[in-house]
Amino acid sequence: MVTIRDGVVPDDVERCAEVWVAAIERRDGSVDHETMARRVRESFASPLVRFAIATAPRFGFATVEQGTVDAAEAYLHYLAVDPRGIGSGVGCELLADAIAHATAAGFTTLALDVKEDNVRAISLYERAGFKAAGTPVRHATAAYRMQSYILRLA
């Protein structure tokens, strides 16, 4: 059973940064630890629609923000699970929580961006009903490309 609670800023932020760095390192093989952790920490300065923490069976977190272009769109900025917990259902439950909170907040869509070759994450998003939107674009600070996905909520 997955246990999810409200995240607390600043108490949970450092653990989230650690998990994000570990997840990216597992996915990509290497990562600039301090730069990635700093980006996660800085993202908590923005107003959040939802900050969820999974505490069991593995630690994970998700953040949802209001979209920057369309006020009716929510944006799933982060979703990460401790790499030792992949396949435990934590990511699926965090995603369901994000969708439920975005819907309850009155958003009509939930958007996200994912590395275009992140097959595991894309499979999770597509199973939840997300559809690819547009063509992949180069990540703002990395050499790889990102694909946008959108879920219609209303």
TrEMBL record:
Query: EC number(s) for this protein?
Result: 2.3.1.-
SUPFAM superfamilies (UniProt xref): Acyl-CoA N-acyltransferases (Nat)
Q: Does the keyword Cytoplasm apply?
A: no
| All residue ranges annotated as the N-acetyltransferase domain in the record | 2-151
Mind telling me which Gene3D superfamilies this protein's record contains?
3.40.630.30
What keywords were assigned to this record?
A: Acyltransferase, Transferase
Question: Which GO terms of the molecular function aspect are on file?
Answer: acyltransferase activity, transferring groups other than amino-acyl groups
Q: What is this protein called?
A: GNAT family N-acetyltransferase
Organism per entry = Demequina capsici
